[in-house]
Amino acid sequence: MRVMLSFLMLCLTSCGGGTSQSALQPAQPVKTPIFSEPNGDFPLQNNQGKPPYSIAFFGNSHSTNIPTYLSLLFKANNSLPDVTIQRAPSIAFLSERLYEQESIDLLYSRRWTHAIFQAQKYSQSGSTTYPTTAAELWIKRARSLQATPVLYPEHPQQGNTDEGQQLQSLHIGIASRSPACIAPVGLVWDEFQIQYPNIVLHETDGNHANIAGHILTSLVFYHVITGLDTKGLPAITELPIDNDVFVKMKNVVDFIVAHQPLCYS
After folding, report:
1. To the nearest whole percent, how much of the chain has pLDDT over 90?
2. Sequence-ordered list of residues with C-beta below 8 angstroms from that of 194, at least 6 positions apart, any chain
């Protein structure tokens, strides 16, 4: 199976979780986009289990490497047809890329089955509430194109046992107002770190995922997009982790995803 993996920009610039990201990714001036916002009410179309898949990612540095590992997971399932995965330029918050022409052009460039949205601003302390209107508008744009919008609550920072659920709850609120699906990344990380505290998922900064963390997150997206248990994936020699760790990851992903509502309509 051929995997077509296209990156408009591959940027490894760091941008931390929560409010600390804004210092590294300044807001861009609002521009008038060359397109018309969708009008009307568009139902949520769930394209889970409906290949061939075409997937667009919109996010910050937490999303940068996910397409690489996700493509390897799809490639390992020989029963699936070709998949296209493309990442939007820049590593901006969803509110900052709302009128970024390159991101708009990507969303409207083809018939996507899934559009992944990450980088909703949030306060780790809970002391500040940030608007979610930009995320809700991105979701509506995707629904108007019959793409399944999938929200990506990023993984918790190292040692933070509350952040995973905090972000899951935040994104459930967004999906309840603007129908979408949610990849329960933070909940999977929480459970994995409870079961296997000696397997490190973070880089030394305690914020970004290391290779193992990227693979764990990619497994969540594989399950959410295909509807298939990840335990059906074989050992993948291209993945730079031991297969026994890979098996542990698959078991946790399948357990958590099976016990979470994924779509809110």
Report:
1. 80
2. none
